[in-house]
User: Fold this.
Amino acid sequence: MTIANKNSLAKDKIKILLLEGLHPSSIEELKLKGYSNIESLKTSLSESELIEKIADVHFIGIRSRTQLTDKVLSHANKLVAIGCFCIGTNQVDLKAAQNLGIPVFNAPFSNTRSVAELVLGEALLLLRGIPEKSAKAHRGEWFKSAVGSVEARGKVLGIIGYGHIGMQLGILAETLGMRVHFYDIETKLPLGNARQSPTLESLLAEADVVSLHVPETAQTHNMIAQAQFSAMKDGAIFINASRGTVVDINALAQALECKKIAGAAIDVFPVEPKSNDDEFFSPLRGFDNVILTPHIGGSTKEAQANIGLEVATKLTKYSDNGSSLSAVNFPEVSLPDHTIPGLTSTSRLLHIHHNQPGVLTKINNAFAEHNINIAAQYLQTDDKIGYVVIDIDSQDSEQALKELKQIEGTIRARILH
Ligand SMILES: NC(=O)c1ccc[n+]([C@@H]2O[C@H](COP(=O)([O-])OP(=O)(O)OC[C@H]3O[C@@H](n4cnc5c(N)ncnc54)[C@H](O)[C@@H]3O)[C@@H](O)[C@H]2O)c1
Ligand SMILES: O=C(O)CC[C@@H](O)C(=O)O
Assistant:
């Protein structure tokens, strides 16, 4: 049993819901930090199941399948923070979470290498027509031929989205002698001998292998459709391990049908099955020259173990001392530990408010009026919200919390210890 200040929740009362079969490293880390009230499920949940469960939960951990929509979040009365145990955060309505004062954490590079390795392996296999030859052999056909089979050496790898994964992929591909070109909306420092293409069209026209590594945004929705497939080299290889919504999947099927594209590897789909028990439907089923994988680009033992530890650590840090460093939708504050067991007599209060003028002044005035001494104060804001962390004498914490909750513009206020 964890002892808590009478205004803060004991750790064993803090409910944590983990979905989508997170690696045991996440639970180990949470338990190590004193959190024992953990429910861990192998699958994601439907909207109605989520609405029912989330009402009671203080922290939730998900991967890419769980949709935390505005509607679901509006029922999350006790939710303190969200952990995305992956890179992508598009499955969460980040604005809705921000408006509710709920930070969202992810693991921005724990599975980067795993994705880059998979993509490179697929590029090599596709350049040699291996998926097709293997499929035929499984059916008893002997297809010994060098036609259309080429080395990777000297070929142009066109990377769309030169971020963490795109850069890793570029470095790996250069070790094989590939020439790396990339297209990104930002100007990026090219690693090795990579070269930035001025436009998407110019990249598509020169690449032997096109690989997508952009996030899901309004801008990237169907960014590769019929016109972009037409702009590619005849017989190009196409790989998507980013998000399914980035590619018009029917246009890809057509490009494969008419042999414009010689082969493809697709890991992500516009609609993905909710669990391993559900059937996978796709217009790409049945093409021997297409590698289809069930969104496992980042699913390696190493990546999942690292992600479990990384995101669980971010959640416990936010819960234990208020640090919001690397939150994707929330002002980032990195805080020193303020407790020395048995020695410190300060309490830490967290105040999340709409970013409007005068909030800090009002807090300081209210505390001054009640002779509440501030030992330390940290403030960070973004376009929508402000996040203030205040250390005060523990004896004043109850009064201070009461005052904070009354400040105009408050979204939520809580006390840590
Ligand atoms: N298949 C998997 O299992 C798997 C695993 C990890 C990540 N992902 C996906 O891969 C994506 C990329 O991951 P990352 O870590 O490299 O992200 P990142 O944020 O480091 O890089 C993304 C890059 O894309 C660029 N970009 C954004 N919009 C663009 C546009 N419209 N046109 C061109 N470039 C654009 C950005 O400027 C950035 O350089 C993630 O968002 C995630 O959705 C999939
Ligand atoms: O593990 C997952 O479900 C998602 C993996 C990947 O797409 C990511 O965004 O990191």
In short: Residues 63-64, 86-88, 111, 298 surround (2R)-2-hydroxypentanedioic acid (ligand 2) (CB under 6 Å). The two ends are 15 Å apart (CA to CA).
